[in-house]
Amino acid sequence: MCGRYGLNHPHPVLKDWYRASIMPELKPRYNIAPTNNIVVIRDLAEGRTGSMMRWGLIPGWFKGPGKLPLLHNARSETVHEKKLFKASFHRQRCIVPASGFFEWQKMASGRKQPFYISSRDGKPLSFAGIWDSATTVEGERIDSCAILTTDCNALMQPVHDRMPVIVPIEDWDNWLDPMPSTDEGLLPILKPFGPDLMQLWAVSPAVGNVANQGEGLIQSIDMR
User: Fold this and answer.
1) Total domains in the fold of the chain
2) Of 17, 58, 121, 194, which residue is the least packed, with the fewest Cβ within 10 Å?
3) CB proximity list for 6: less than 8 A, separation 6 or greater
4) Is 170 a residue of the active site?
5) H, E, C per residue of 61-113
6) Catalytic residue among 2, 94, 145, 152
7) Which element (helix H / strand E) includes 54?
8) 105 found inside a domain
């Protein structure tokens, strides 16, 4: 699954990379967790736009009070048919920019070792996302999103069995199209990213604490 990632590409780089007319000012973040507010990319009436949303999908029918659902991931194999996700999948898709993400490998000793995974060329990764808007009983609107996951590629398999769906640049327009789309047009996008386009290395267990931040969290460590 995808439960932790980072985004430290500068604001101008993200704006140019996604050809966005609007992009929020962002500070580097090295340990983004579910329920955090994150930047997402959408195609809206005013053009391609970056905006902030809660990471953890809140279905449009949710009114509260009560505990908010923690739907930070959706499986790509069933997203088109599950009641919680299918409306957003067909009508409300987004891209979640990331500089890299973390996964934990269970070691023979029983401990879990975190790894950081990023693109080999240093460009941002574009996670496939879906979003929704809910209005609370107090009238507050909450925009929220989930990241889609798929089977791991060959690079990731020794570490974990799932990874985020990463949308290649040639599929951005199709994925972000705000018009209702068919399963036949969307499902082929939801596949593991090429392992030759990615790299990974072991990082400090400090990333396991969501309170920790800083560039040190993505520095390679010696596992010997």
Assistant:
1) 1
2) 121
3) 28, 29, 30, 31, 32, 98, 99, 100, 101, 102, 116, 217, 218
4) no
5) CCCCCCCCCCECEEECCCCCCCCCCHHHHHHCEEEEEECEEEEEEECCCCCEE
6) 2
7) strand 47-55
8) no
User: What pLDDT does residue 66 have?
Assistant: 61
Whether 166 and 100 have beta carbons less than 8 Å apart is answered as: no
Burial class of 205 by CB neighbour count within 10 A (0 to 12, 13 to 18, 19+) = middle
The answer to whether residue 105 scores a pLDDT higher than 80 is yes
- Which of 94, 103, 145, 152 is catalytic? The answer is 103
Per residue in 151-165, pLDDT (tens digit) is 999 999 999 999 999
CB 146 within 8 A of CB 73: yes
Determine, yes or no, domain membership for 75.
Answer: yes
Q: What is the CATH number of the domain that holds 29?
A: 3.90.1680.10
Phi-psi domain of 19 (left: phi exceeds 0; alpha: psi -120 through 50; beta: other):
left
Please report which confidence band the pLDDT of residue 180 belongs to, taking 50, 70 and 90 as the band edges. Answer: confident
Flag whether 205 is in a domain.
Answer: no
Q: How far apart are CA 153 and CA 193, in angstroms?
A: 7
Which domain covers residue 132, as residue numbers? 5-99+125-193
